Amino acid sequence: MAASQRITHVLIPLALLILCVLMVLFPAETWHAGVRGLSIWWDVLFPSLFPFLVLSELLLGFGIVHFLGTLLNPLMRPLFRVPGSGGFVFAVSCASGYPTGAKLTAQLWEQKLVTREEGERLVAFTTSSDPIFMIGAVSVGFFHNVAIAPILVTSHYCAAFLVGLLMRFHGGVSVKDKQSIIDSPSASEEVHRNRLLRAIYAMHKARKADGRAFGELLRQAISSSLRLIIIVGGLVVFFSVMMELLVQTGWLGGLYAITEQLLRYTGFPPALSHSLVGGLFEVTLGAKEAGGAGISIPLVYKAAAAAFVLSWGGLSVHAQIMSVLSNTTMRYGPFLFARAIHALIAPILVLLLWLPMMGGSERPVLFQTGAKPELFSYTPDWGQILFTGIGVLGGVLLLLLMFSLMSPFFSPRRMKK
Question: pTM of this prediction?
Answer without folding.
Answer: 0.79
